[in-house]
Design a protein that fits this description.
This is UDP-glucose 6-dehydrogenase. This protein is α/β, with parallel strands linked by helices and about 450 residues long. The protein has two domains: about 200 residues, Rossmann fold, CATH 3.40.50; about 150 residues, Rossmann fold (3-Layer(aba) Sandwich), CATH 3.40.50. The protein contains 18 helices and 14 strands. Helix 1 packs across helix 3. It is globular, with a radius of gyration of 24 Å. The structure holds nicotinamide-adenine-dinucleotide and uridine-5'-diphosphate-xylopyranose. Uridine-5'-diphosphate-xylopyranose (UDX) binds next to helix 9.
């Protein structure tokens, strides 16, 4: 099938490559000319395991094309995916300007019937807005061709995006039109082999499903972070509590890992956007507002620990930081907890020596060159001359470090662990002070 994808970011690029891999002919359109040129040279703009060979092989096979030529893209695909960003606007609502810009572009060039698919995460009612926008432009042009707008939200996780798209848990299709449903079935047939994964529903329910999924996962995390704060005060160990409750299949082990707060391009903005959506229809979403508030506070947790340890005096301190991306296996720093920590450390007069396996370029892009940030080539060199070590992201490379080396390198042998990677007892035995998240035993020694 001929498919066009507008927006070559985390979602658009991965989805396009995976669709091309099963034989669809995919044209990717982006307004970012540099990105398009780089992709044509085989230079992949994001770090995502397995993505580079997938993109390169499908590009070479001619099944995957990259262009800034929107007219060419619109002409090509029977199905037109909108996979552009929906960042928060000033009040936290999803900003639909990029989605509606694509809708306008499609309507400007379409000469035959199209299925327009909202793949971006968009508030309930957006498909109606896209349809109205397309209809308006077609009327202005005096062109009478049919179109449908489908909601097909994306559930991929960064760091596992290729695998998630190749083997989705479910494929949600929001449409009331049986012919459109059939086309979407045909498109996704290669991913729907072993058991039925398509869940077809009305458009509004599909739009809400995406927000409900992300908000449910964010709620689980904030709940655990809340309990971890309580554990810290009560002298309990949240890691034991996590295992104790996760063993109940009604609760499960997924998404109950306490930490230094959730980040990334989805949870923070999607929880906020659903709060605004609710408020706009006159409903106060108390639970969601608390999920957001707990997370904002949790992102300050590591700084609070460091500040308490150094008795409020961080002026001139050098902090080694392991992990900058919002989670492992990605270079994405959007809403990463590391950013909150670094910015608070800098404001308090400390400097940061940071290392991340993939997010160094992104950190440089965001913060540029500044005297209080040193980007180090290895995790070991980040320790040199530092006063303390903070771990923000659970990359595999950080899971079994040389504790002797850490102890020797740091002027204060102390680790602040934002992902509970290490055993407090073991570190205590090695003579390293340890502050995890919600690990009562270690935090008691603050007092
Ligand atoms: P992104 O910022 O990585 O990429 C967006 C791309 O769209 C950019 O390359 C940008 O240049 C391009 N673009 C902007 N306006 C355009 C236009 N008019 N025409 C063509 N291209 C245009 O975004 P992303 O992370 O891929 O997210 C896209 C959407 O998918 C968002 O709504 C997001 O919430 C949702 N989503 C993201 C993830 C994720 O993990 N990143 C997962 C599920 C859903
Ligand atoms: C999320 C959703 O999982 C995915 O389905 C959706 O399409 C996009 O948003 P992503 O943001 O890529 O995916 O990563 P995810 O693995 O969900 O982690 C998000 C954040 O939550 C990270 O900062 C992570 O560290 C944090 N997290 C996750 C926890 O703090 N504890 C957990 O138990 C799980």
């Amino acid at each position: 099938m001929k498919v066009t994808v507008f927006g070559i970011g985390y979602v658009g690029l991965v989805q396009a490559a995976v669709l091309a891999e099963v034989g669809h002919e995919v044209v990717c359109v982006d307004v970012n000319a540099e990105r398009v040129e780089n992709l044509k040279q085989g230079d992949i703009p994001i770090y995502e395991p397995g993505l580079t060979p997938l993109v390169q092989s499908n590009y070479e096979a001619g099944r995957l094309q990259f262009t800034t030529d929107a007219a060419f893209g619109v002409k090509h695909g029977k199905v037109q995916f909108i996979a552009v960003g929906t960042p928060p606007d000033e009040d936290g609502s999803a900003d639909l300007q990029y989605v509606l810009a694509v809708a306008k572009t499609v309507a400007t060039y379409m000469e035959s019937a199209k299925i327009i698919v909202d793949k971006s995460t968009v508030p309930v009612g957006t498909a109606d807005k896209v349809a109205a926008c397309v209809a308006e432009v077609l009327a202005e042009r005096g062109v009478d061709v049919g179109f449908d707008v489908v909601s097909n939200p994306e559930f991929l996780k960064e760091g596992a995006a290729v695998a998630d798209c190749q083997r989705p848990d479910r494929i949600v299709i929001g449409t009331d039109n049986p012919a459109v449903e059939n086309t979407m079935r045909e498109l996704y047939a290669p991913f729907n082999r072993n058991h039925e994964k398509l869940i077809v529903m009305d458009v509004r329910s599909a739009e809400l499903t995406k927000y409900a999924a992300n908000c449910m996962l964010a709620t689980k995390i904030s709940f655990m972070n809340e309990i971890s704060n309580l554990a810290e005060k009560l002298g309990a160990d949240i890691e034991k509590v996590r295992q104790g409750i996760g063993s109940d299949p009604r609760i499960g082990y997924h998404f109950i890992y306490p930490g230094c707060g959730y980040g990334g391009s989805c949870f923070p903005k999607d929880v906020q956007a659903l709060v605004r959506t609710a408020e706009k229809v006159g409903y106060t979403p108390e639970l969601l507002k608390s999920v957001e508030a707990v997370n904002s506070r949790q992102k300050e947790k590591l700084f609070t620990h460091v500040e308490a340890y150094f008795k409020g005096d961080l002026q001139g301190k050098r902090i080694a930081l392991w992990g900058l991306s919002f989670k492992p296996n990605t270079d994405d720093m959007r809403d990463a907890s590391s950013r909150v920590l670094m910015e608070k450390l800098w404001a308090a007069g400390a400097s940061v020596q940071a290392y991340d396996p993939e997010a160094m370029n992104e950190t440089q892009r965001i913060y540029g060159t500044r005297p209080d940030l040193s980007l180090m080539g290895t995790k070991e060199s980040a320790l040199n001359g530092a006063d303390a070590l903070v771990v923000c992201t659970e990359w595999n490379a950080f899971k079994a470090p040389d504790f002797e080396l850490i102890k020797e390198a740091l002027s204060h042998p102390v680790i602040f662990d934002g992902r509970n990677l290490y055993d407090p007892v073991l570190l205590e035995e090695q003579g390293i002070a340890y502050y995890g998240i919600g690990r009562g035993r270690s935090v008691q020694s603050f007092s």
